[in-house]
Amino acid sequence: MVAERRNQHEGGESTLTVVLALMVNLGIAVMKAVAGAITGSAALLAEAAHSVADTFTEGLLLTALRRSARPADRRHPFGYGKERYFWSLMAAVSIFASGAVFAFVEGVRTLAGEGQEQVRPLVGYVVLALAFALELVSWTQAVRQVRREARAEKRGVPHYLRLSDDPTVKTVLLEDSAALVGLLLAFAGLGLHDLTGSAVWDGVASLAIGVLLVVVAYTLGRTNKGLLIGRQADPRLVRRVYDWLTRQREVEAVVDLLTMVTGTDRVLLCARVDFDDSLGVAELERTCVRLATALRDEFAELDEIFLEPVPRADPHLRARVLARYGEITRRQP
């Protein structure tokens, strides 16, 4: 119950972070598009596409949060947790397709001399300043949540973001960070165009925004790819589970320990254990049930647990374990 309440709290905060980002980006997208049409700035139009992409992304993230929360059923016995990773991957594709490609097209058109002549740059400056202030609100909420969760896990923010199995907040944080940098690039392009009279600066700023979005899309895509394939659980959790099992009086040795993230705060555990040979069949069955129950009580992240009694001296099993982990398996899983 503690884990369930914690997941509900974190899910609610993630939803708040995503909804706030969606509302902010929708308003900013409209402002940038109007300002881009008025001023003729390629960088502003690229930033409008950036905000449109971010708005689509938040919509996909809300879908991810809703669909991944569904309980396990007959067709999906391990639940729907990985839907969060699929829709987050689609969000990364959206950033690339809707934002980066448009920014590149606008930059190339401007550098080729096909862009619209820039007029009324003051409108662009005002809109960029307002957009920066609004993006800062969304970014602050994302940073606040990330810092709180990193502190709860006793990790630094970069380490937490690298290992986190919740892509939604990471996506919003990277999006908003990229948005703030993109706004500064657009401001620089608009200002240099205004000062020099050369549209080259506007085109260069648009291309730079495109590169920025490609980097964000690639980073998020790589993260979600690893989670979709089936990533190992947090190494600290693996080590704690391993140590816990080895301390049990019925356990002679932990031969192999397999984990896979099946959703945010959901871990599948398969432990191959060499039990005390003096245990009878009925006692071994009761021991497996007791250990599985105790593991769930001790480690809230563990969702499904499989304990397999095996002889540690079996050469075929040892060969499989060594092929996966190498000689380090003599000391740890």
UniProtKB/TrEMBL annotation:
The chain crosses the membrane at residues 15-38, 85-105, 125-143, 199-221. Coiled coil: none annotated. It is a multi-pass membrane protein. Its main location: membrane. Residues 18-227 form the Cation efflux protein transmembrane domain. It holds the Pfam family Cation_efflux. Keywords: Membrane, Transmembrane, Transmembrane helix, Transport. It is found in: Membrane. The keyword Transmembrane applies. PANTHER family: HUEL-CATION TRANSPORTER (PTHR13414), PROTON-COUPLED ZINC ANTIPORTER SLC30A9, MITOCHONDRIAL (PTHR13414:SF9). This is Cation diffusion facilitator family transporter. It comes from Streptoalloteichus tenebrarius (strain ATCC 17920 / DSM 40477 / JCM 4838 / CBS 697.72 / NBRC 16177 / NCIMB 11028 / NRRL B-12390 / A12253. 1 / ISP 5477) (Streptomyces tenebrarius).
